[in-house]
Amino acid sequence: MLSVALRTLRTRWTAFAASFVALALGVGLITMMGLVLASSAHAPQHAPERFRAAPVVVHGADTLRVRTPSGVRTAPLSPPRPVPAGLVARLGRIGAVTADRSFAVSPAGGPSGTNGSARAADRTGLTGHPWASAGFAGYRLTAGHPPAAPDQVVVAGAWAHPGQRVALRAAGGTVRDWTVVGTVAALPFERAVFFTGAEAARLSPASPRDVVVDAPAAAVTAAVAADPAATGVRVLTGDDRRLADPDRDGDHEALVTVDALLGTAGGVTCFVSVYVVASTFAFSVAQRRREWGLLRTAGATPRQVRRIVHAEALVVGSSASATGCVLGRYGAPRLAGALVQRHVAPVWFGIGGATWPYWTAFGTGLLVALAGVWAAGRRAGRVPPAEALRDAAVDSNAMAPGRLLAGGALLLGSGYLAVSALVADPGEVLHRKTYTVQPMVLVTAAALLAPLLVRPLARLLAWLPAQLLGATGMLAGENTATAVRRTTAVAAPVLVSVALAGSLLGTTATINAAKAAELRGRTGADFVITAGGAGFTPATVARVAAVPGTDTAAFAATTVHTLEDQVALTGSPAEAASPAALATVTRLPVVAGRLGDLDDHGIVVNQEWARHTVGQYVRVWLGDGTPRTLRIVAVLRQGTGDNGAYVTPANARGAAVDRIDVALRPGADRTTAAASLRNAVAPSGGLVLTDRQWVAAQHPTTSRQTRIGFWLVLGIALLYTAIALAGTMVMATSERTRDLAVLRLAGATVRQVLRLLGAEAVLAVTVGAVMGAMVTGVDLAVVRVALALLSVPGPVTVPWAALGAVTGTCAVVAVTCAVVPGALMLRRRGPAPVRA
Amino acid sequence: MQLRSVSRTYGSGDTVVTALDGVTLGFPTGSFTAVMGPSGSGKSTLLQCAAGLDRPTSGSVLLGGTDLTGLSGTRLTLLRRQRIGFVFQSFNLLPSLTAEQNVALPLRLSGRRPAKGAVRDALARVGLADRARHRPSELSGGQQQRVALARALITEPEVLFGDEPTGALDSAAGRRVLSVLRGMADEDGRTVVMVTHDPVAASFADRVLFLADGRLSGELRAPTAESVAAGMARLEAVSC
Ligand SMILES: Nc1ncnc2c1ncn2[C@@H]1O[C@H](COP(=O)(O)OP(=O)(O)O)[C@@H](O)[C@H]1O
Ligand SMILES: [Mg+2]
Q1: Would the pTM of this model clear 0.80, i.e. be above it?
Q2: Cβ distance of A469 and B113 shorter than 8 Å
Q3: What's the angle, vertex CA B110, arms to CA B109 and CA B112, rounded to 5?
Q4: What is the ipTM of this complex?
Q5: Inside any domain, residue B82
Q6: Dist CA A576 CA A557 (whole Å)
Q7: Residue B50: closest CA among chain A residues belongs to which residue?
């Protein structure tokens, strides 16, 4: 059988080309993403950077550890705690101690400074340190001398030279002039500025986060262990010193993003490629009915026909999968490079040596190829011998019972998912995982059930053109409606692309619009002042509060951790603000309790919290890790979710004010107030925005990574659709020699035949696009209903442009791939009748 | 309709096949001609060259003063659409269209709306008025053949060509098709040319042309089934 299969492969290579390309590409993409995911799971440990020349580093507590019945759960502290002053003094008794502080410094007028956790790639600002710690990172003076006076600095890099005066804003304070007295060679992980120790301590008064001790590690560990105030403080030596490096948090976040991005993209790729490859294989088998009939006439048993089909799939599947693995191997480093370049992955990110992605992708590819022809092979085996002699019947059984069953089950399943989510927890519908996965279930159901809809839709769409005088409208309508299998093979991939584009982009846009509307509703302020990375100093907050005719509310972003179900330590975003300010300046949607009741023992939660009854107590860990039991004083409406809790500033120690809401008192003049506010923040830097500007600035809340992810996903889906369309159209057109010859004999000119082929392609694509739009409509309706249940206003946003672009691309590909082979065929054959 | 020293060769070099070798003949208006000959003698080629479906390698084909060999592809198609009809042994109909739609196809292709009842009349004439809404897969071979004939009738062609139009049919169905062809020549004054293997079918024609090795080898006027069979036997004896 294999030899027969090989011979067929040689003569019918066009039919297999589409399957081959689709499969090789799919396996390539899966390999590529697998390799990148494998590398992010086993990210190489980089060597210590900032403290590479320090013997022993004592690192302030930066991790919250909570013991639960099922083990210790951890979460990062925000902000991390400094090394306690008592411990620093104690360490000083066993060896020389050098404290390191890190704080944001920004060139005046330039971008605002960044804090230690900003990602390497985004680091446009400078980092301040005391000069004493410069040597631990390996900095050496290349010119000048160390800072000796409070107004002297040493800078890393060549952007300033000794003797130059530079205007800098350090640690969110006011802009001052400093004299550069020396320079050091820059290091890749930061852009450093060094101050005298005293000046660094004055600028960043909190105790240092890292202390270098010149003493044996054992002695230091003993000293730390003996200090009761030093819980969570770590003694770092050797490679562990990298834990004190500035990029650590950023890298971790970046890798989580890479995982999420490729997880989604990989999922969609798998879904689309499995679907497309399987249906291309199936179609290539179904198209050859006459050939199977001939084989049966020649005496082949159904089993033999099936074996030929399987052997073909095996040959094409394994060669395409192998090609895909090679493609993936070349593609993976490029994908990693692109992720680094777009600042999605950390700079050091690269591909490791994992081999499982190859095996997984190869196996998946082969399996998909075989699965694709499994049902088609059974059908091919059942083709009666007489089929070879008969006129091709109208496709009556394109809807196999298995397909109907699977499609119906998935449709019911997705209906159940949507309804149960809406009933149980509408907020669930707005989560990214939900709104990326649910459309896929519905899309699969729709694609499986497509044959049912193809005929009525094609007739409906072609009704008007068919009324026209010419034959094209009528013919295209009839051909499209009767060749259900062929039309489905074209319409289904279009359906998948259109539905994915519409659902993914539409739901995010709708949710964003809802979030913007919600934010607008919650913002009672007339102005919102935002700070750069380092936040506002208390002096600045006081100056703003003193502007006449205004009420202000200062917010400091922090985190509150709770233990859910005794197993999951979840961090919720929270804002620290004074209760009085909250009540006057914001319009938070309180459903129970009173904001004014908030005090240092209370918390305002929202309905998303497991406990949300006023008067109940919740056990929380504050941002700095302090465990507290707080009383719920008010409950906010859940809304679109992630709207956070509110605590008093006493429960957010160490968190700097990063936003000030300003409401005008009645009678106050807007313009005057705006000017005064600008004056008040001018020395420390900060943006005074009107409420509208602020909401607008928050509006595109979809992060860049999510958008890159969506475009990646859509690009893949569209690429696949294009391959599927090209393959199907070329296969289908070349199988239509007879139809076209009959048409020519009936008097159709070449131009008329080609116009017909084009019209049929457009019609089939339109059928798919309409079905895709229907799926999109259902998905958007589910999101809209969820928002309504959460009482969030906002319009349904349909991404018309994306839908149009996807449909247009599909139409162009389909028309080209129908008309070009058609034209070649007609030229080759002329109008002579087919010789049977 | 006139053919002047029409030749048609296939292939080139060593493998060149001469399917027609300088054939000159005429089909008078209103006549019914049958073309016979052994398999491979060039009957189909002759028909296709005459009908403008294929282009002769040399020679000319004249239809009422128009030289078909001089026309461009599109002009030729338009001329065929208006003045020539065909029926073949099989593969005549578009499987996706109903009988009715298949019959109306040539008119719609030329941008005309079929006159009211014209399609029904054509189907009625071939005895298929009750099958208008059936698709080819729901019709028997003979019925399909008659639908094809109805389609050839509707454009009212000057010349109708049939390549073994009864080849796949039983004798009863074949006779129905043949009597329709006979009627077209007698009642409508159309020129009918038909290739056949069947002496009985050939006996419906006014005259029979015998073809051998791409050349005209004989002619029989007012044929009967017996005289045709005798002619065929002579031809086969010579060529063996
Ligand atoms: N497309 C073609 N290419 C090569 N040879 C052909 C082609 N069509 C017909 N022939 C050859 O031309 C000769 C005449 O064919 P045809 O007219 O079909 O014969 P008939 O219809 O009398 O059986 C045959 O020898 C056939 O092999
Ligand atoms: Mg023949």
Answers
A1: no
A2: yes
A3: 100
A4: 0.74
A5: yes
A6: 6
A7: A832
